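Milestone M4 deliverable, item 7.
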Amino acid sequence: MKKIFSFCLMTCLVVNVFAYAPGDTITLDLTTPTNPATFTFNVADAWTETYNETDYGYIESQVFGFSHLPSGQSYGGMSYEGFTVCKVAADSGYFGCMARGGVDGIGTPYVLGYYSEYYSMLNSTSSNQVIFTTGEQYDAVGMYVCNNPMAYKAITQGDAYARKFATGDSFVLKAEALDASFAPTGQTVSFYLADYRSENPAEWTINNTWEWFDMSSLGRIGGISFSVSSTDMSYGFSNTATYFAMDKLKVTVPKTTDVSELMAQKITVYPNPFADYVEVTNAQAPVEIYTLAGVKLLSSTQSRINTSTLATGVYVLKCGNQTVKIIK
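Output delivered:
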């Protein structure tokens, strides 16, 4: 199992500043991804690279990067954590969606998330994170969500691992804001994919189609961390399959007074990948280097920073409210 997220990103994150204007809404469109350049699907209508161990640490489309963490051999064979893309036109199977396709219609693509409690426990970070490949922060808006058939079946019928839901039960998708260094802020918002908390069964609800998940209360974010929880648990882990489908994720570009001023203040980091040092130009604040889990490793007011003590891996360089992902 991978211990950290790997990134497949551009080496200099300054080219997208003119792609969207301040105030624009950016909507996830899976028909025009950037990494991979296009999605191909297998006979199960799941992305053919779902279990690719090396090439796709993140799935990228528009400004969004979805964590993709295939873990190799599991108890049942190949498995993955994080996100993949599917277009199953049926409300059945591990890769399915109760809506039988994305928001655009039956058989259209959608993002499928599998939240791994085990991965998240071992690595102290969620297996399901969305970051922004531009290195910018955006204002949260929301997305559409839908139950996966395996979770839906477990809740409504029970299965070999999970019991059928009863009074008091719930199945919840939680979104937590990440700051510019991808550290959790504690600001969260939840969506009940199944809500059986009422003593009156007539008031119970379970999702089986696309519903809007308003995440605007998260405010300005550097990313979003997702988790799934069920009241049906054993030994601290959910018995209900922790899958969820999502589509049309939306954020807005913060309104600024002058895009040219923003460009003028944009930092540049090189070389990237780096070895014994990184050079930062246009820095208006101390430069800090963090792990992907948000642990600060270095801080400097110099333009040339000695990185010889850092191990090989992926890091986050922060300067003021700007972040750049760097690789050694």
